[in-house]
Protein 1
Amino acid sequence: MVPTAFLVTVAVFLLIHLTPGDPAAVILAESYTPQAAAAIRQDLGLDKPLPEQYLFYIVRMFHGDLGRSVRNKLPVTQAIGERVNATLELGFAALLWSLLVAIPLGTLAALRRGRAPDIIASGLTVAGISVPNFVLGILLILVLGLLLRALPVGGYIALGDSVPDNLSHVIMPAVALGTFGAASTMRFTRSSMIEVLNQDYIRTARAKGAGAWRVVNRHALKNALIPVVTIVGLQVGAILEGALVTETVFSWPGVGKLAVESIFSRDFPVVQGIVLLSALSYMFANLLVDLVYAWLDPRISYS
Amino acid sequence: MRRAGILLLFAFILSACGAGGGGASTTPAGTPKTGGILKIAQETEINTLDPNTSGLLVEREIYYNLYDSLLGIDAKLNFVPELATTWKYTDDKTLVLTLRKDVKFQDGTAFNAEAVKFNLDRYMTSTDPGAARKSDLASVQSVEVQDPSTVVVHLKRADATLLAAFVDRAGMMLSPTAVQQLGAKLAQTPVAAGSGPFEFVEWKRDDHLTLKRNPDYWRKDKAGRQLPYLDQLIYRPMTDQNAILASLKTGDVDMARSVAGKDVDAVRSDSTLLYKDTPGLGYQGFELNSSAPPFNDPAKAKAVALAIDRAQILKNVVFNNGVLSYGPIPPASWASDPSEKIYDKPDPEKAKATATGFSFTLKTGNIQDNIQEGQLIQSQLAKAGITVTLQPEEFAKLTLETRVQHQFEAALTGWSGRIDPDGNMYAFWHTGGSFNDGRYSNPQVDQLLEQARTTTDQAKRKQFYQEAQRIIAGSAVYVFTHHPNVAQISTKHVQNFTLIPDGINRLAEVWKS
């Protein structure tokens, strides 16, 4: 994990610093003067050679200091920390939506293979995979927000302030963010389930007189879920990625929206911090997947 | 492209949803109601709450409701008393301000001449690398406290633009006690630091910023009622214009400064919304780099200006939400002369006779409106035998190449505008000015801009600015296309809002029905 994280820091550092744009000019905006811009560049250390800036960055990182935001001078850890809860909530809700839709529908499609439920589920899958999350978000805003006035069109209310308000605000962004995952997970659940249902031990279970529910739930599903877990693990890692767009569409004050704004204003330290977080979340998701494997299939063990 | 297309489609359906009914452009009269929360959408998040380091328009939006300035302006851009009741130049280099005696900052500190000196000194001597008010106050030598309600500003040189600077952030007064106690926290949590109609409550970055009524505000309305009327202001940053419009329609926000140009007609005819607009102080167009080929040849620059059809750009790109521009002086300004129409009608034949058969690259922002405008310019200039290559770029890159590196042939840029014409001209076309991207240098323009700065006689200043405008627009160092409107879109519950051409919300007198 450590070498991967190290490579990530190098790649991110180079990419963001090689992107043309001057943070000083962006921050000063209509108050720009060459003198003020030079003062800001010096203050941020941007006038130093890149290797020196990188070294400085790494040394500080080992002290738990990711630097300060160029835009508002807040420590990067604080800037990200303030928004992480909103993104975690959105990510969790999106994953919940994705699993609640995908597993039952995927199973149903496998059991009724080639019949109406399967065809409908497959159609939904294609739609879910091909519609980008921002388009779905906009459609949801249009229908549920503007035409039916059923849900708020954007914004965020903290869970601590009001639980019903919090939930009503999270539904649309969660559906927008989670649907792509739901569609691909459903696809995997279906094919994996079909494969498992054709295996000998399922026939044996049926022959022993186990009920349909028990066969599916107890014998088939758990084994069918192993490949599904892999794909869900990848989705967990990708939540931050999808949040970039979804959070912007829904004015959701999370890490994704922060990333978009920081990129546009060339807020180097914050972008670096967020990409590092994103890389770590992928690694964490991978670890989680490995642990779930072992729980699903006792034959897999780690020593 | 695909995304933009879908967004357009969405916006179209969105506009269609609310169509119908007759729009109202004036606010109905009635007895003001005290109380209520006003939710305001902002186009971007702010960076700081300290005027000293502010560079964004959205920041000024909040400051004008949080802090008071020394001077104010009315809808016709006349200076009106605010914290200073009178202002007088006793000679070219001495400005005497008489201050209100009944004002306290929200933390209880008295507002007086000492506070003015503290604030102006802070702006002028700040060691913060982001300090942005130094250049506004560059002409000030020292600030002298004559008595508790009289301040004398001594100048290094005559400066006719200083009063306009005192309306904006350089004239915003903060409690010296709060500034000293808060230190670096001032930029994030300026608790009780102002004397304005509202005081700071909280700022959850990227989500909302809340201000509450200042119960001890010094202003009353004409009937003697305490201002402000509203209990709270909640600002919400919303970067997506479609999201702003959707939120206005559902009432999730009460007020916004802008919607996409293509949606304006639908908003005007929406019976649930109020739309107000007026030509703003800014201008739009494109700059031609006079220090590099091809536009170091003045004939080529003139040919471009001659071939441009401004009315077509105004109609097709801006949906007529603005007025044609013939120079940097906005129509609302006292320095404007409506009869002055440089390059009024397109004349491709005359353009061809001036210079033709050359090509240049036009850099634009990478948003749809900018690209469309670039394409229109491209097709207009083709008629005069001028080939334009478009190069859409992300905003930060465009700023770097024009403002910092001066590497461009032509670039689509604009300016939000300032109250005094100096703010629309000096930094752009004076030799070595901060915004002089194309390194334009003309001793005659330099002299006119200097003279206009150092004369307090407004009639003379108008002559100087007119003359400078004729040279700048005439030489086509910048091709002016239009002055965009500033607008205010709100739900019909928002009452008594006055739109000032600087486009900034002043909400002390606004109430909700």
Protein 2
Amino acid sequence: MTATRPLFAGPSGAHGVPWLHVLVFAAAVPAMVLLLLGLVRGGLPPALRAAGVLLPIAAYAFGGLLVLEGSKQVGFCGSCHVMRGFEESIRSTDGSLAAIHYGRGLVPHDEPCYTCHSGYGIWGTIGAKRAGVMHMVRTLTGRYELPITLRGKFDIDSCLNCHAFAPSFRAVEAHQDPDLQRQLVSRELGCTGMCHPAAHPERARTGGGAAS
Amino acid sequence: MIRLTFLLALVALGALIPLAFRLNGATAILFSFVGMPAMALALLLYGVYRWREGAFRAGVTQTRNG
């Protein structure tokens, strides 16, 4: 085992078969063969028509599921130029709140962006996916400005979902202040800035790497 | 028209294959903004093709026959 690999990492494939990838191929490859046959012959025999329709639909359904699940991965977020700085920052020790959470294992290592930036429950998931589509549109059209900023206010329920009932969090004197609690719940105040370090360094917002 | 339908479906599946090999922003954009519209258009064209063949007019045919 080398130093660059995580400790306790199993051999390749130890986490099971990537079924969604396999199912995409299992549906797409025969579908392409059938469609090519249809293209050459100008149609499909009646016995193969249903397969010629259902297999491409199945392939796209599995592909959609693959995108929905795979787009939670930090590597997916960081694959676009504008987000690369955030990914590098999270993996560094630059003292930002995101890097602290990642470094201490307080967020899942494969889904740190999604954990904090998707809201709670099914509507949070839907909102995150809708925002993700808009990110793709803006990346494709180049309609974004650097340094990028969060649209709207950060939903501190993402913080409170984990911290609110933690004894160490509740023991902090400032957290017991009713006025502070009211300001936090009404979003007049955020966790970062005044009390806690910024979630991400300024350098990451410009698409650059982490501060060394 | 049926050849165009097959061609569009093949384009759509062509946009899907890179995604299954490597999921990242570029392949997701290809899947969402090239593959999805191509597949939707292919299904629409196929529906129109079958409709023109009389596939969805069983009731009408029965009435006429009857």
